[in-house]
Amino acid sequence: MVTAPGTATNVEATAVNTIAWLSRESTTIVVPVYQRQYRWDIGGCEQLLADIRAVADFGDDRHRHFIGSILSTAADANDDDAELVLIDGQQRITTLMLLVAALHHTVRGDDPELAAELERVLVRASGPTRTKLRPHRGWAEIFESVVLDQRSAEEGLRDSRFDDNYAFFRSQVRRDEVARIWRGLQRLEHVAITLGPDANAQQIFESLNSTGEPLRDHELIHNYVLMGLSHAEQSAIEDEFWLPIEQNTGEVIGSFWRHYLVLLTGREVAVAGERGVYDAFRQEFPRLDLATLRERATEWREYSEAYRILLDPALAPDREVGRQLAYLATFGRGMYPLVMRAYHDYSHGRLSTEQLIELVERVQSLLLRRAVVGVTNDRLVARLCRARTLGADELLRAIARITPSDERVRVALKYSELPHALYVLSRIAGVDSPEGLDIDQVVPLAPGDDWSGDGERMWVDLTDDEQNSHRALAGTLGNLALLEQPLAERVFGDSFPQKRAIYAQSDIPTTRMLAETPAWGTAAIAERTVRLTAEVLRVWQRPAVVSIDDDGLTPILDAVRRRGWPRGWEREFEYVEYRGEHWEVYDVKYLFNRVFKRLWADARESVVAFSARRGGPIYEARAWNGHWDALDDTHYLYMGWDSKYMLGAVQGVLEEAGLASDVFVKYSYIGAVM
Known about the structure:
With about 675 residues, the protein is α+β, with helices and mostly antiparallel strands. The protein contains 29 helices and 17 strands.
């Protein structure tokens, strides 16, 4: 055969309508044995269904939704009706089959014409007892039993993604919505890539899946915002809004979008291993016509201007505001969602300078005290953003509740290494900026043999216990001196009598006081610790509005949603605090069951409203096989969801009932490292 120059002979790529392709009588798809197991979770199904609904609602019938490429090769290249061996696309095709099966089983009793159309996607014309998609033989029987609805009610429970995702689709698509979803499905397109006999399937698969750098969240947001606009509209939005946002946020534009979404939603936004920021953005802004886009983009640009000030506090018009924001930067960017909103309100005249400074001071106190006592500052900001929407008093109570008490701080400062020492000692000394300053340990962490605290007894003369006592206190508040860098270099490693003369030359009052101390040892460190601790508690005060210090508890709305059922999920929690009650609840599945049963008794209207809006998890009949629990004679709780969906449902129904702020989880050791 003679091939024209530039003609491909081993790869054929064609844009096709996905449902029409699946509906052809000749279409039979085989998943090869080397393919991975089916892994889509409910989150992926939820996004697919949202995309299908969106394309279904476009008035223009020509509008299509592209689902990517499907790579296959014919089992017998000489047979037009040969089975297609699926190399890439198994996850998408399997999920579409489960959705179509859910639609088919919903309408087969009362709409035979539509049921017949749906069935053509699922089963072979030559053998209606076999599915068109033939998965890996290890799980083909489970898949076919779901798609063909061959499971009996008497069969035992089983864990499978096929069952879970099918149940999700059954729960989410009501009978009166089937036609809409079917319309959206018929608007799906993909590129069908068929390989010839001499093509290198593995090389092509790797090229499709591994070549190039994946788009980052902010790049996906950028594309999503501009897609569908005319070139002139895209250029206008780019110049007026997007470029200023990029200029204001620079290399941390991804962090800006995450912090903005935390501010907006009052929920933590996942980033690791997922397109969490982009997905959260799409959920918050599902449809953006040009007028709405310009309105929202104005807000985004304004928040990016506030973010720019947080990144570079020297740009703040007010000097004291800039100084406090610079102090806040000591602790990283974790509290930027809360402070960004506050600064935005301040720049629009809704918050006074004094109120902004007071808030930034309280946030510093919260972060420093928690660092001092050794508890994490992770996953705090979302709850504070939620509290802020309820007013200043509610925010103050929320901060106070998670700020460690004076007693805990005193004990920690006495025995623990001081975190952020340069920042702490600078503020105690009344120094505007720690620039050009350094920290000197009066007793070095590793003294030389001739080091002395009194000029008489050398380090080598001290007992082991005395040496260990000094070492244990080396990094504590009482043993640290703030010094100008040139002076700090001169005293490094010196004995205390030598340091006294240098300390006397310092311009820092708290350091000059050290020169008045005749000898240095554990007693002197303890005395200075008491004195400086009083200053710490004065500068970094705890709001005196509540007596609870619950830093070990995590609000239910800030609990971590984990995909699938990760190892250790059965012991994720130590316990759950439900409105003052102590529940011995150790996993999400039991928590899900107990919360819904409790609310069914206490707040049924909220449960019904939530379930109706979300499409579950409560139904009036056991509409499909799986794990159910009866709430009463006519209502049933479906228990076949995954961990992420169950926790999301718990959070949602508690919000609906107005009880979320009174429910906390205490993570176990296992849960803390999951």
